[in-house]
Write a structure and sequence with these properties.
Layout: E1 2-3, H1 9-16, E2 22-27, E3 33-38, E4 41-43, E5 46-52, H2 56-63, E6 66-73, E7 79-90, H3 93-108, H4 113-120, E8 125-138
Antiparallel strand pairs: 1-8, 2-3, 2-6, 4-5, 5-8, 6-7, 7-8
Helix pairs in contact: 3-4
Length: 143
């Protein structure tokens, strides 16, 4: 099923479950499509992750903010959510630490959240906020 924009409650619950890693699709400077795994959180209807300003992802998003993110459940009965959207970046230090800490807590556990927040919430890192323009979802494909 395709949703024109936005994340419904079922999609948010799926995206927020456990430690599923998102696959971020973006374009290289020569137009080649690239995919990279990212740790993320859902925040206010957006998908949010951080990356280095000078990484391939950071440079690509500065050139072209159009992205696609796919998150799947590889276990039967199999499900996925694809979010097409526009990425906006920020280097706000307070928000960077807050987002990096939330992401660290999700993927590394609450006891290591602050450690990862300090490690990834530093100058040169970006907050990337993906606002959905289209959502494609398919749950329980093998049922």
């Amino acid at each position: 099923m395709t949703e024109p924009t936005g994340l419904d409650d079922h999609v948010i619950a799926f995206l927020s479950e456990g430690t599923r890693t998102a696959k971020l699709g973006y374009l290289a400077s020569d137009g080649r499509p690239l995919v990279a795994p990212v740790w993320f959180v859902v925040d206010g209807g957006d998908l949010v992750f951080n990356t280095g300003r000078d990484t391939a992802k950071g440079r690509a998003l500065a050139r072209d903010p159009r992205v696609v993110i796919c998150v799947d459940d590889e276990r039967p009965p199999f499900s996925f959510v694809q979010v097409q959207g526009t990425a906006a970046t920020s280097e706000d230090p307070d928000e960077l630490i807050a987002v990096a800490t939330r992401i660290g807590g999700r993927y590394m556990g609450a006891d290591r959240a602050e450690e990862f927040g300090r490690r990834n919430g530093v100058p040169g890192e970006l907050i990337v906020r993906v606002t959905p323009t289209k959502v494609v979802k398919a749950f329980n494909l093998a049922d």
